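Narrative progress, year one. The postdoctoral researcher (J.K.) led the effort to move from monomer predictions toward full complexes, under supervision of the PI. The following entry was the first complex the group processed end to end, covering 880 residues in total.
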Amino acid sequence: MEPLKLGLAGLGTVGGGVLELIAHNGEALAGRCGRALVVTGVSARDRAKPRTVDVSKLEWFDDPVALARSPSIDVLVELIGGAEGSARAAVEAALDAGKSVVTANKALLAEHGTQLARRAEAKGVSLNFEAAVAGGIPIVKTLRESLAGNQVKRVFGILNGTCNYILTRMQNEGKGFAEVLADAQAAGYAEADPSFDVDGHDTAHKLSILTSLAFGTEISTDTTPLEGIRTITPADIKAADELGYRIKLLGVALRTDGGIEQRVHPTMLPKNSAIAQVDGVLNCVAVDSDFAGEIMLVGPGAGARATASSVVSDLMDIATGTSRPTFRLPVASVEPHIRAPIRAHEGGYYIRLSVYDRTGAFAAIASRMAEQGISLESIVQKHPRAGLPGSGRPSRIDEPTPVVMITHETTEAAIRQALEAIEADGHVHEKPQMIRIEKL
Amino acid sequence: MEPLKLGLAGLGTVGGGVLELIAHNGEALAGRCGRALVVTGVSARDRAKPRTVDVSKLEWFDDPVALARSPSIDVLVELIGGAEGSARAAVEAALDAGKSVVTANKALLAEHGTQLARRAEAKGVSLNFEAAVAGGIPIVKTLRESLAGNQVKRVFGILNGTCNYILTRMQNEGKGFAEVLADAQAAGYAEADPSFDVDGHDTAHKLSILTSLAFGTEISTDTTPLEGIRTITPADIKAADELGYRIKLLGVALRTDGGIEQRVHPTMLPKNSAIAQVDGVLNCVAVDSDFAGEIMLVGPGAGARATASSVVSDLMDIATGTSRPTFRLPVASVEPHIRAPIRAHEGGYYIRLSVYDRTGAFAAIASRMAEQGISLESIVQKHPRAGLPGSGRPSRIDEPTPVVMITHETTEAAIRQALEAIEADGHVHEKPQMIRIEKL
């Protein structure tokens, strides 16, 4: 069979990984898919830049859109990045020219996934993006193909290696967020401007793609409730540990009667669960579905080589004629994304309060919880030298005492009202900490 | 597009699950693959047997071979089981008649996989078997497709739910093997004759299929070194826990310079690893490969619904024309399976000895280890009331003292020679316990 001719737009880390993989394993993979993968054209910003793989023999394009339209390529591999600009232009040009596209660009998919899928479908070509979510983990194929006979109930995962690395080190070393972030930046595990990662935006992009694949709904990122990991303190990690939990930043999407609940936030997970042991820069994705039950995939969420593995998997699907609807369903069947309000979320909560040691303080807090119908599974008062605040034992007035509570299942609306009332009562020294417990 | 017409041979647990899935999710999956799946013919031993799904409207075949050859079906779904007899005859008949086959039959594949793949290839049809290994976990697709760009270094996993259930309960409850086995039998988690599971044969079948997919070698089961879980004692589980390990029955295959090392045995795994938390009847499979790094998949390893999910995934691949070589490579390119001798295995070991408390006993043991160049990472003497055996502290003569050692990396040949010499010296009360440590 004719080789599959590839045009590579973007020669950064992942582009280099793809060239390296094809150079290294090209013969073996041609044997497996009955067809060679050959890079014939490349495009990048700076032709003169020194690269680890020699591209001087390949056709060079200054303009990725020209590469996308070139008759010398069958497939565009878009590794430029970014939701707009030349990445978007090149992908649209390739699809409109009837060429399949492989991309690792989560921002592009999160912003324009549905219309790009429509273009691909109109031309009968593939838009593959295994590398866009969780790097080397084959979650897109698992949702599109392996679980295609199932109705998905929930999809969730650790989708950002930077956050997981930071939380793991906070856990292991007892250090604070700022200190570990600085270390992570020095080690190259976090960007100079870390907010895209640590505030949860990256997780939200990936989650929006997973949601669409899992539930057959249009991609929607804009209004995902988003909490990052900056507010997690060593006190939270220590209290979680004592109560049998680990804290992980999760992206979670589930189908409820009120729509799709899609949220990104730090989460308490039982520490004897497999997901709680997914540490460091590793990612994982779990899928609950009606027949397959709960499947979890763990692996490297980033890195040139792991990402290249996913890009090449997508290319081999195109080489062998494997094709499924981009987001699991033809675009005409994709449903609008109806968002369930976060206030309707049901679950248990971890609450950490910093309570002034005054008579009646704790009684006031307890009655605020009771007013909302919230019952407590456990309560821990972390002040070693005294009883519960307000219990009458001697203690210095106005030195706040940490109190940690785990609630039974309740609603987000109830917990928010209770915490607002507690704050308004003035018995707490700082904004209450609230971390959702994810039921496994 | 025309519906894909299915002939279902075998209406047991999994067959019932497949009928139920298609009844429940048939419309959704037709939307996803552009084609309906319709069961048109069935075959089972007893037509009169009451079933949960009504099959009275379907064409009945007393002989599964007649079903396989019937022009009324496009694909044979073989759920009879067993390496020979009607399962084999029906699969061969279907392939020879140019029909694709989906099977959950690991014994059939382990014994006859290569020749069946040759028949499928000759007719240009698919032989799919996602359900044959690890139930609902999509490991076959992951190896065949997602990791197709990689060279696999090692594949390993918890492949038998019965063993994992028993070991998990021994761990959690401190009970012995026999007691937990009896409970498991009563609860339906273990067969009346448990040896196929607890002695490792089932794991070996599944492992042989994984090995072939991972390394492109012919399937070979016969001479896999096999150790089951009957010899694991509460003392081992307790000692492992204190040393930071969990004991799991693993199937492991890796490529070495001397060939494929393929083995099934209880294994020590660090207890803070994700795989160590895969408990109960869950299965998992991990794959180390050159670009994707280490990927792990966790999920239900058995059960009607999870297995049906995998069968339907295979069917949807056939419905959409997705096709890859049966064992990742065309049969002509599959290499012979050259087995690395287990004595060449390199790794750390857990050793538990029951040592008579005599002067010189421990010195003799230590020198037997030293003779083989084995160094110790740690040593624990589990007798609370005394020092190391032979250390001169008072103790009742001939009451054996448990001694647990963890070795640094050594070879299987060295450890076996050392243990044989220790046994021959007569200082130990029973055959030494030896459990391999798997490096993660």
